[in-house]
Amino acid sequence: MKARKIISLSLTLVFLLPLCLGSITTLGVEAYSPGDVNGDGMVNLQDIFMARDAIFGAELLPEPFTAADINGDGVIDVSDILGICDIIFGADQYDSSVIVPNLKLVLPINQPQLPYDGPEPEYGFIQACWESYSIDEVMEKANKCYIGRVTGILFSLVDINTGYVPTDKSDESDIFIRTIYEIEVLMPYKGMNASYEKIRILGGIPGEYIAEQLEVLKDAPENRQYIYRFWTPLNLGEIYLFNLSQREDDFIPTPISPMQGVYTLQNPLEASEAKNNNISAKDMISAFGEDKWDEFFSQWKKDNPEYLALLDIVE
Description:
Layout: H1 2-22, E1 27-28, E2 42-43, H2 45-55, H3 62-68, H4 78-89, H5 96-99, E3 104-106, E4 123-125, H6 135-141, E5 144-159, E6 175-190, E7 196-202, H7 210-217, E8 227-229, E9 239-245, E10 254-255, E11 262-264, H8 273-276, H9 281-286, H10 290-303, H11 307-311
Parallel strand pairs: 4-8
Antiparallel strand pairs: 1-2, 3-5, 5-6, 5-9, 6-7, 9-10, 9-11
Helix pairs in contact: 1-4, 2-4
């Protein structure tokens, strides 16, 4: 049940919070009135964040819980987040039908890929140049570092000029598809308190989830209905080391670069100049302390009994 709540919240907040940030208003009320989750006598974005944290597992005392449970059903979920926005902006200030249909969720067990037998979709490729970073530079640029497992995949449109959902003011050339991965956090190293998180990566996934991506692209301008590839896709169920950057005004973090933002862990000792400036996953994890590496490598060997062949080393 908790996982469903997290998914429901994420579906909305991917789009809702950027809209809120654009024209945030504070509404004065009596303490712990509906929507005033933190009891400061105001209903604003801070109350949305506090209700979100409750869905992610934070415990609320009776008064804050009642204030967050807008519809009074005894459960804090996405409908309550939308209810708080109703209080702040008024129901006519946003349209939830615009928020949710622009996103498609794929789960590895409960919802396999939708069947697709149509024509081959049109693909594109996004090119960009990235510099290689030293470990110190990675540590400086990444405000979130952790090992996590990919548990879900979502798709949405994005205006790359603003980083948010396209609007009628978006230039057509700035509209792309993006992939949003749900990550289960297994070993946090920096900047992580939650057990689940979403990360965003520009571009789609060629050859997979075609029906889901084409459904999202229906809302794009006709000349932008391409599945653009920008990044090597992440695989459901696999574990990676993430080095992420998140701006203060951005709800969803993104890897610091294609090569050093996400490390595969098939061989945590492997490093190459072309991929990651000769910095291995071991180097990155060890930067947080040798005990962190020992903890990870001990577990990795248990999970990979054929590790000697994988590492091509003899201990």
